[in-house]
């Protein structure tokens, strides 16, 4: 088997690590980055791909791939991978499985109610509206090639170097309170593990990937501060908060996300089923390495 990643960033690097750990491992690996000098993993071939033109160097590695994982968000005109490399994918002789990382933002606002994969998608912000369209484009492409396609709708991603601890340390953490607002999250290690197991099984379908416990964002910051032994930042009411339009748009969606389907399909529980267990593991690893 051979895996190719379009967009070898934070989640893809965790997925590559999990694929190497499988028995047998999913190898070899290759992928794309916008700037090879900033690649998160120097142990595999990484090709420059900005999305505005085809990559000039990836043909051999993509042509050898049996599995392709796409984690690049849409551009203004839609999916950049299909725009620039649809023909390469259509003619790849060994391709057996596709995976696309989407977002739970496609559901839109449910007023705090639970959503699952059968819930309608009615996103309100343009980024999530694009995701709905791109999901369908990938379904049509996979159907035309008769390939299994996994769409993973990811909740808010956190993990080492990208958690409430980092924001508390650099002074950007805020406890913005919007009554009744909850979010799900997902630890990057769970993204990696689930994607690796799904790749090995060639799992197809559309699945949510979120933790078991939707929580108010201010609670996460307060809990992280408590673990560090520092005072949390003061609470700020959402209506009075000074926020960018993009930051404010995240609060337009209020829902709880069911992850039952993906756990059932793979026969697993999450490594980090809530933010408390995830943050505890991050802090323990930091202290063990210091």
CATH topology of the domain at 3-156 and 186-212 and 257-271: Rossmann fold
Taking all Cα atoms into account, the compactness measure Rg is 19 Å
Provide the β-strand percentage band: 15-25%
| Global geometry | globular
Low-pLDDT runs of 5+ residues are none
Number of strands: 13
Mean pLDDT: 95
The ordered H/E elements are: EHEEHEHEEHEEHEEHEHEHEHH
What is the assembly state of the chains in this entry?
single chain
Q: Tell me about the biggest sheet?
A: 7 strands, parallel
CATH superfamily of the domain at 3-156 and 186-212 and 257-271: NAD(P)-binding Rossmann-like Domain
Helix content class: 25-40%
The span between the termini is: 37 Å
Structural class: alpha/beta
Spatial order of the strands in the main sheet?
Answer: 3-2-1-4-5-7-11
How many helices? 10
- In the CATH classification, which architecture of the domain at 3-156 and 186-212 and 257-271 applies? 3-Layer(aba) Sandwich
Which CATH first-tier class of the domain at 3-156 and 186-212 and 257-271 would you pick? Answer: Alpha Beta
What does this structure look like?
With 290 residues, the chain is an alpha/beta fold. It contains 10 helices and 13 strands. It has a domain at 3-156 and 186-212 and 257-271: NAD(P)-binding Rossmann-like Domain (Rossmann fold), CATH 3.40.50.720. The protein has helices at 10-21, 59-64, 80-91, 126-145, 164-170, 188-201, 217-228, 245-250, 260-266, 275-289, and strands at 3-6, 29-33, 46-48, 67-70, 97-103, 114-115, 149-154, 156-158, 175-177, 185-187, 205-209, 235-237, 256-257. It has a 7-stranded parallel β-sheet with strand order 3-2-1-4-5-7-11, sandwiched between helices. α1 crosses α6 (188-201) and α7 (217-228) runs parallel beside α10 (275-289). It is globular, with a radius of gyration of 19 Å. 40% of the residues are buried.
């Amino acid at each position: 088997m051979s895996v190719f990643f379009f967009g070898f960033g934070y989640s893809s690097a965790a997925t590559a690590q999990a694929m190497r750990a499988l028995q047998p491992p999913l190898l070899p690996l290759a992928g794309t980055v916008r700037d090879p000098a900033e690649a998160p993993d120097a142990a595999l071939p990484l090709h420059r791909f900005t999305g505005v033109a085809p990559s000039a160097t990836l043909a051999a590695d993509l042509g050898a791939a049996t599995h392709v994982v796409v984690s690049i968000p849409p551009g203004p005109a839609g999916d950049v991978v299909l725009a620039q490399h649809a023909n390469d994918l259509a003619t790849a002789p060994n391709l057996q499985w596709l995976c696309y990382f989407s977002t739970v933002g496609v559901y839109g606002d449910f007023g705090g109610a639970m959503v699952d994969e059968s819930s309608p998608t009615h996103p309100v912000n343009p980024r999530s509206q694009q995701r709905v369209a791109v999901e369908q484009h990938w379904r049509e492409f996979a159907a035309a090639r008769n390939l299994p396609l996994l769409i993973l709708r990811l909740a808010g991603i956190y993990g080492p170097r990208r958690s409430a601890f980092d924001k508390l340390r650099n002074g950007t953490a805020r406890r913005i309170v919007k009554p009744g607002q909850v979010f799900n999250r997902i630890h990057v290690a769970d993204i990696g593990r689930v994607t690796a197991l799904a790749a090995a099984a060639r799992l197809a379908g559309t699945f949510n990937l979120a933790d078991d416990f939707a929580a108010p964002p201010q609670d996460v910051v307060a809990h992280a501060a408590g673990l560090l032994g520092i005072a949390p930042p003061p609470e700020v009411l959402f209506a009075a908060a000074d926020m960018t339009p993009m930051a404010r748009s995240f609060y337009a969606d209020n829902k709880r996300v069911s992850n039952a389907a993906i756990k059932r399909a793979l026969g697993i529980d999450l490594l980090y089923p809530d933010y408390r267990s995830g943050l505890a593991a991050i802090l323990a690893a930091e202290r063990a390495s210091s």
